[in-house]
Design a protein that fits this description.
heterodimer, A: 274 residues, mainly alpha, MetI-like fold, 14 helices, B: 305 residues, two-stranded antiparallel ribbon, 2 strands, membrane (chain A), transmembrane helix (chain A), MetI-like_sf (chain A), Carbohydrate ABC transporter permease (chain A), cell membrane (chain A)
């Protein structure tokens, strides 16, 4: 171990610079969202505001239905997460604890959807959602996102780590499947379920590609779409307001990540994706 | 498999037979409706001339494919896509591979901190990332341009220049996806037996040789997975900064196959061209997958877990 000591310091320096670049935009947004436009132009390099002002947030809430937009985003992310975690959990349970005809074929087809480009489904999905009368609605955003191969994969990996003998004993005692799920499997894979749920929530919160096709009126927008409206005013008078929208868009995902990072990293590390 | 006992010892054999399908049903219904059927319908649409509104679709055989392949814009976009792939691989495959190795085997402290800091941007909206970097990298008034100005360096007007625009959009995309790839590779590398590495070190084998001779072969199946998703998902993630910042411009210089399919369908309303382009993209992705799977099966048999 001692042999490599001399390499440690240079790598720490490289990593610190790297992290500075990675995280700089986040601090930039936080700082500038609290600056007045004047302050932002006078000191474009300083991240710390001279006088903290909430003017940008005020302006945001008066110029946009920002509460409604935040609520839309929250509803979409919550509904998608709840449905996805249930569908993924059930499917994973079937794959891990049952042997059935077509198991490998079905698993292969489900997992292969991870590798499909979204463009191969976007036109028909747009047509389906339109014909259901759900274009430009929160439900139109939600519906195609209700199942997910990635969740099935992560939960399958987590369930495989449970000793099969536990389940066998329960089955020999004639325990019902739904009780095995609820009382044995769920408590044992709770960390994976928690972190997969958070992952789903954040993915749906940040989703941009599908909502941008479906949503047309500002009242139905999600946060990433509202934010997109500010790009056209590059360097214009809305600059600090755009920073405020950025902050609102990232605050919930960031808080969730920082709170649950141990679980989340653990789930991805132990899934040993191949 | 050990699970056989579940199906044999159960008295209600029929329930046991139906149960797995019932459990899969919700996922299969959703994916069937919004993934498998649309997938087939897109292939169907690629043989028709249609504008998404008109009530009739005209069957044109392979004409859409011929049109798309004859269009010089397609070839420009294909070239852009190749550049995107090369840059994406350099930043999101090579760099995280090296960094994961360094964090696991070279450093002794701060491992936890690096893991969570590297992974953090993966949780932030790429629209946020696109907007923030557009300002930070603004060639006139952004902080990077101001600091570069002190050293008499001018930042190119990247959003208007061929090549540069792809470099910057790749970097913005990488900011988002890099950490996830790092975590996957780290997971695989940290599963390599410590004794093997220790022994190699005691023999005074240089770090870079340990990396190429031991670490890369022993983590190769995850390595190949990350290689594939860098291409397949990286190109799709790049859609967001392209859409937000340049809309494919200037003159298609930042468009890739994914953005172009969107552009054909939802800007030009040529569903046939869009569907043909998507189908070609998908065939390339599937080909890539098959090649890589063959590669995994034939060449890689080291990895323990």
């Amino acid at each position: 171990m001692k042999i490599n000591k001399r390499w440690e310091i240079p790598w720490h320096i490289i990593f610190f610079i790297f992290i500075l670049v990675l995280l700089y935009p986040i601090f930039y947004a936080l700082g500038f969202s609290l600056k007045s436009l004047q302050d932002a132009y006078n000191s474009p390099l300083s991240i710390i505001p001279k006088n903290i002002t909430f003017e940008n947030f005020n302006q945001l809430f008066t110029s946009l239905p920002a509460l409604k937009i935040t609520w839309n985003t929250f509803v979409i992310a919550s509904v998608v997460t709840i449905f996805k975690i249930i569908t993924s959990f059930l499917a994973a349970y079937a794959f891990v604890y049952f042997i059935f005809k077509g198991k490998n074929v079905i698993y292969f087809f489900l997992i292969s959807t991870i590798f499909l480009p979204f463009t191969i489904t976007m036109i028909p999905n747009y047509l389906i959602i339109s014909s259901l009368g759900l274009a430009d609605s929160v439900w139109g955003v939600i519906l195609p996102q209700l199942a997910d191969a990635m969740g099935i994969f992560l939960l399958t990996q987590a369930m495989r780590s449970i000793p099969v003998s536990l389940i066998e004993v329960a089955r020999l005692d004639n325990m019902e499947h739904w009780r095995i799920m609820k009382d044995i499997v769920l408590p044992l894979v709770r960390p994976a379920v928690t972190s997969t749920s958070i992952w789903f929530f954040i993915m749906a919160w940040n989703e941009y590609v599908w909502p941008v096709l479906i949503l047309k009126t500002v009242d139905n927008y999600t946060l990433p779409l509202a934010l997109q409206m500010y790009i056209s005013s590059e360097g214009g008078t809305n600059f600090t307001v755009a920073m405020a929208v950025s902050v609102i868009t990232m605050i919930i995902p960031l808080t969730l990540y920082l709170t649950f990072q141990k679980y989340i990293i653990g789930t991805f590390v132990s899934s040993g994706i191949k | 498999m050990t699970t056989t006992i579940l199906s044999i010892k159960n008295k209600e054999g029929r329930i046991q037979k139906i149960a797995p399908y019932a459990l899969l049903l919700p996922s299969l219904i959703v994916l069937g409706f919004f993934m498998f059927w649309p997938f087939l319908y897109t292939i169907y649409l690629s043989f028709f001339d249609w504008n998404m509104v008109s009530t009739t679709k005209e069957f044109v055989g392979f004409e859409n494919y011929i049109d798309v392949l004859k269009d010089p814009v397609t070839w420009k976009v294909m070239g852009n896509t190749m550049l995107y792939i090369v840059l994406l691989l350099a930043v999101n495959f090579v760099v995280p591979y090296i960094f994961a190795y360094v964090v696991e085997f070279v450093l002794q402290r701060m491992k936890g901190f690096y893991k969570s800091a590297f992974f953090l941007p993966a949780f932030i909206s790429l629209v946020v990332g696109s907007i923030l970097f557009t300002w930070i990298l603004n060639p006139v008034s952004g902080p990077v341009a101001i600091i570069a100005g002190w050293f008499n360096i001018t930042i190119p007007i990247w959003s208007k220049l061929d090549g540069w625009v792809i470099v910057v959009i790749t970097l913005i995309t990488s900011w988002k996806i890099w950490g996830y790839h790092f975590i996957l590779l780290f997971a695989s590398i940290s599963g390599i037996s410590k004794e093997v590495i220790e022994a190699a070190r005691l023999d005074n084998i240089p770090l870079w040789r340990i990396f190429f001779r031991i670490v890369v072969p022993m983590s190769s199946s995850t390595g190949i997975y990350v290689f594939i998703i860098t291409i397949v998902q990286g190109l799709q993630f790049a859609f967001t900064p392209i859409k937000v910042i340049t809309q494919g411009g200037p003159n298609y210089a930042s468009s890739n196959v994914i953005y172009q399919a969107f552009h054909e369908a939802f800007v030009l309303y040529r569903t046939g061209h869009s569907a043909a382009l998507s189908t070609i993209t998908m065939i390339i992705f599937i080909f890539l997958l098959i090649v890589e799977f063959k590669f995994v099966e034939r060449r890689i048999y080291y990895e323990n877990k």
